[in-house]
Amino acid sequence: MTVEVECRAEAAPVAVEDVKTAAAEEVKCEKEELKPTIVEKSSSYREESNFLSDLKDHEKKALNELKSKLEAAILENSIFAKKESPKEETSEEKPSEETCEKKEESEVCEEETEKPAPEPVPVEKCDEPEAIDEDISIWGIPLLPSKGNESTNVVLLKFLRAREFKVNEAFEMLKKTLQWRKDFRADALLEEEFEAELGGAAYMSGVDGEGHPICYNIFGVVDEKTVATEEKRERFLRWRVQLMEKGVQKLDFKAGGVSSLLQINDLKNSPGASKKEVRAAVDKAVAVLQDNYPEFVAKNIFINVPFWYYAFHSLMSPFLTQRTRSKLVFARPSKVTETLLKYIPIQEIPVQYGGMKRENDFEFSNADGEATEVVIKAGATETIEIPTPEAGTTFIWDVTVLGWEVSYTEEFVPADENSYTMIVHKCKKMGTDEEAVRNTFKNNEAGKIVITVHNSSGKKKKLFYRYKIKKAAI
Q1: Which end of the chain has fewer CB atoms within 10 angstroms, the N or the C?
Q2: Residue 463, burial from CB neighbour count under 10 angstroms (0-12, 13-18, 19+)
Q3: pLDDT tens digits for 439-470?
């Protein structure tokens, strides 16, 4: 959710219901042309470099000019808008001619007959110069360039990139952001508490393959009760900005570090034209984030995208910059897991999107490493064996197959040939919408867990699994 005109397209999930019909008609003939842009082929993507040595000459020049303007503005106390002091009236208002004319002929207008002696004009004292605040900062990063903080360049480059390295526009954007943060009390947001039910509309969870923190926006969760009044809409806005601030806290703002987020936008059941209050509240939140958090999104992935949205995007695309277009990724409902997997490890993708990550999971963590990938050819059967060398061992495992449509079985096979094989998970035909299987088993003798997956479909399947072994407490 970043930058202005080009990013207004990112607010579209809640604001384009009224144009979808016309747009769909206009792009019927372009249906096939849109398909290649639905899922990007490359899984590797990096932020634009913040190393000074990597900047082009005109970019270095723009950065130096912006630093000079910012330095001067801070030292001149001209960053923030100054409040005008009310003017003191030093003389009484003169009665109007109309008032005088309405008086009776026998009366003489005060203006003509009695003129009060003018009061002495008070001598104004010269205002004392305001103290210069050289510690002005944003997101904890000092902005005075002469302080020499490496992260200052990273922040300024965000504003420059958001304005195509037009120095004056970037400077004005920065000033407006600083003024907004002051008026909105953004620095105090992290200390505020909000209603628990708001948490389902957006949340931070995990990191992608490049280390970007991931923010999920669930547009279909926000209901009319949540934003029914002006007070509730303001609460919603402050909560959403707080979430963004929490995401910013996870960034390091170093030249070679991670300084932006990966954003996932779930359009399933997104509010339509009938939910005007919801659309207005979400649109306002999107606009605030775009205007005040420039270049904070490394990729903007839209999932569960209906076809009409592609039509809308085709209309908006000519107005987007190349930088913005390169960040947009779209996935139909049937391609959600496949698309996310190009950017996020399977163990970091939530189970509702086909991955292995579960909320408040106390069994697996990042320390357990990545899941193992196995390709099952069309018509083939794959077995996964988890050795259980000691009795009294508890096993925990996760298994998922992209798109499923396979037969799935779990068994415990004892090492002793005279013992019986135990069915842990009887054979089941797994549907396309199945979540990852998690199971546990405690053995009473040595042996192994055998997971069997038969792919009866006509195309290959990707299987992912991971497991842990817990020895029994003594």
Answers
A1: C
A2: buried
A3: 999 999 999 999 999 999 999 999 999 999 87
Token reading at 281: 């509240």
Distance (Å, rounded) from C-alpha 441 to C-alpha 392? Answer: 10
- Contact, 303 vs 264, CB < 8 A? yes
253 torsion bin: left (phi>0), alpha (psi -120 to 50), beta (else): left
Q: Which of 382, 376, 336, 350 is nearest to 459 (CA)?
A: 376
C-alpha–C-alpha distance, residues 470 and 463, integer Å = 24
Beta bridge pairs of residue 299:
262
Rounded to whole angstroms, how far apart are CA atoms 442 and 473? 13
Alpha-helical regions (H) of 18-78: 20-26, 31-34, 57-75
Pairing of strands 372-376, 461-471: antiparallel
Give the Å distances, CA to CA, from 133 to 65, 73, 187, 298, 307.
21, 11, 17, 33, 52
d(CA 458, CA 335): 18
pLDDT tens-digit series, residues 178-234: 999 999 999 999 999 998 878 889 999 999 999 999 999 998 888 888 888 999 999
220 Cβ contact list (under 8 Å, min separation 6): 266, 267, 268, 269, 270, 271
Rounded to 10 deg, the angle between the 276-292 and 167-184 helix axes is 120
Residue 392: phi and psi, rounded to 5, are: 75, 25
